[in-house]
Amino acid sequence: MPPGLERLAAYGWRLLVLAAVALGVLWLLGQLWVLMLAVVVGLFLTRALEPVNRRLREQQVPAGLAALGSLLALLGLVALVGWLIVPRVAEEFESLGPTISEAVDDVEEWLVEDSPFDLDERDIVRFREDIGQTLSDALSSSSGSVVSGALIALEVFTGLLLALVSTFFFLKDGPRFQRAVLTRLPSERHDLTRRLARSAWATVGGYLRGAALLGVLEATVIGIAMALTGAELVLPVMVLTMAAAFVPMVGAVVAGVLAVLVTLATAGFGAALIVAAVALVVQQLDNDLLAPVIYGRALSLHPLAVLFAVVAGGALFGLAGTVLGVPVTAVAVNMASEAGWGRPRSELAGEPPVP
What we know:
Elements: H1 3-31, H2 33-58, H3 63-113, H4 121-138, H5 149-183, H6 190-228, H7 234-244, H8 250-267, H9 269-295, H10 303-339, H11 345-349
Helix pairs in contact: 2-3, 2-5, 3-5, 3-8, 6-7, 6-9, 6-10, 7-8, 8-9
């Protein structure tokens, strides 16, 4: 047997084994997606509440009371925001769906009758059916089948409840969990483990702060543009724009298209063009100027890597994977960089020790 073919075969069967293990892990995560989502959301909430919890602990507040106080502060803030804006937003959200449908119908009519493209109504109907099927596939249960809204709501409620419970114990017993992990590792791995944990923790914090800040900026500018052009349903669009900021790149595009469609249906073609121009400028400024500064090292990913992370997460785990694909990828990349993967050995040997 030629040496090259023998070497290729050796790599091949090892890659097949690794692929089988990876598929098994993905299948298991799909079966336990509610639990995994609760753990990830709990870690995100813990990262957001960690400064409050740390200050309470510095004031000699017991660990359990500090964790409970931090969690109650979050719930109180959510309740206050809900009491202030939810009633108004809920009223306008009822009109959001019909408004978007009306705008889509106007766009379809233009494409069929006035656009330079050779399209007929059957092409448009087929495209809408494909989009609807894609959205239906995204709303799937842990078994992968399309489920009713009641079952989805039950899974989401269960996941949120588990996330809150997980957040409490992460805040309360975080140091104990860290010690438990370190005691099960060789002493020579302790320093590397601490560095990887600090890198992951900093990445999650930078991602949450960056997404929240960019979401507020984008929602404010687009909301002002819609209000000045006479569009309606400004508040629901702003809320959706802030939420969409937690899906980098793709979320901003979807929010911009939504704002343009709403403006088209409620204020006309000229106003929609203005809002489209504003949304395009805002997204370019965010991607080229603000995002690198705000995110920093937390999201130092190439735009193509961000796009692949969003698409792969959505294909594997639906809507939850779409939201979590980018931060999970960023954590993995930054941890690998902290561990020295991909850097020359000479560079690693010349690094000073971590204090």
